[in-house]
Write a structure and sequence with these properties.
Order of helices and strands: EHEEEEHEHEHE
Radius of gyration: 16 Å
Bound molecules: pyrazine-2-carboxylic acid, zinc ion
Number of helices: 4
Strand order of the largest sheet: 5-2-1-6-7-8
Structural class: alpha/beta
Strand content: 15-25%
CATH class: Alpha Beta
Number of strands: 8
CATH superfamily: Isochorismatase-like
Helix content: 10-25%
CATH architecture: 3-Layer(aba) Sandwich
Amino acid sequence: MKALLIVDVQYDFLPGGALAVPDGDKVIPVINKLQKEFPLIVATQDWHPENHGSFASMHEGKKPFDKTTLGGLDQILWPDHCVQGQKGAEIAKDIDMKAVEAVFRKGLDPEIDSYSGFFDNGKKKTTGLSDYLKGKGVKTVYVTGLAGDFCVSFTALDAISEGFETCLVEDATRPIDPDGFESMKKSITKKGGKIIQSEDI
Ligand code: VGL
Ligand code: ZN
């Protein structure tokens, strides 16, 4: 059994959003077209309280993309984004949600960031995604969405650690930083994941 994971296709990651990913909207038609190939489709949603510790606005004298530590981990500071209940946190209406069986929210704890759809960045708490997929008999996951170098890649790495055969669908994602994405793709292949194109599915 295979599952499609649609990571964080939310307005704040699309052009015009608070943390816009260049060409982020280009992933939408690719993801919608892929959906028909999958018996199980799951989405994730970055869902921060307004005082989230990953926001530069919470740290005096810091600006977005500065570095700090949060909960003992290295942390990039972001513009305020995906604030619970705000428009920017909504999953883009152009993503076809009819066949999406569940949405896993992450990033709720103000004290720690959560890039992966499976665990927070300290691997302290699970979102429940791994057990959910295993309970459905999923063996292979295909990871899509935004941003390629952060939440998509961290989700893929955790999927590998959780024992799933893992494919990152390159044309169904876009990165914030292309160089960062190149090194994340190398980490994924080194751990046994695959980088594929949607036409390979
Ligand atoms: C993301 C940075 C901060 C993502 C979420 O979805 O890739 N990136 N929060
Ligand atoms: Zn976030």
